[in-house]
Amino acid sequence: MTDSQTDGAATESPMEFYEKLTAQGEAVKALKTGKAPKEEIDVAVKLLLQLKLDYKRVSGQDYKAGCPPTDSPASGESVPAAAEDGDDLVDPWTVATSNAKGIDYEKLIVRFGSSKIEAELIERMERVTGQKAHRFLRRGIFFSHRDMHQILDAYENKKSFYLYTGRGPSSEAMHMGHLIPFIFTKWLQDVFDIPLVIQLTDDEKYLWKDLTLEDCHRYAVENAKDIIACGFDVNKTFIFSDLDYMGMSSGFYRNVVKIQKHVTFNQVKGIFGFTDSDCIGKISFPAIQAAPSFSTSFPQIFNGRKDIQCLIPCAIDQVRRKPYKKLQELKIKRFMQMSKV
Question: What is the C-alpha separation between 263 and 266, in angstroms, rounded?
């Protein structure tokens, strides 16, 4: 006997779903604390995810523990993911669907404002680099992009660019899913022979997770070892911890401040679903994550040059159409995305 959570979605109020979600969250927490069997925990988590989808469909808001639904969605530029993509919910914190076929990535491409990586683009990359395309491209693991043709145009005209990717260190070791973007990034560095910067967002994990500042920094050091093991060019790779580098580079911090001035609180609140109970560190963090897109954030590498483009290999759940709209208007982002593995 199964209990369909969507049958009553049209009649139950957002507050009723909120109360169900809160209770289910406590149930999952109790199961994990009590070391219940994995199968039992999985069933409870699946129900929790379904409730989150239903809650967002009914309320137009992301569920936030301790923050009951408001009368209307947060103002700004956000569009509820579940309402926009049927039963798909994909953001930097949650990936869920009630569709038996899984996430519809064609819809994600449209929603996030990217373009599908077609055979023509792959053939052009092979022609420009003289190398066979990486298997992740050929097999569709990396499946969409933004402005990759512009990057290739610049490269053909002997104009360099650099790579930027990162890792949020929340554990001592990285698993295969974490390594996928780094494996692909290494290939990009090898075939284009370009610099790479890798941001370890230990500050972000301290703000979002129940971790000490010391543990977050220690995880960053441990994760850096895993990243180094991927075999990046030691002469063209800069790996940095936000907790360390922010205080060392005036160029980096200057760019953070410039970005902060161009993005309003109302925008980040609507885009990321921040509430009045979130700490101010979360609200300002998107500027820190965007700063490495500027070559002037790394004067020791680029000698103050402002004309170097940036290509960012990252997961599709890290990219949305509107979170960095102001920054996109400044043309500082060049994205490639990959599917969830």
Answer: 8
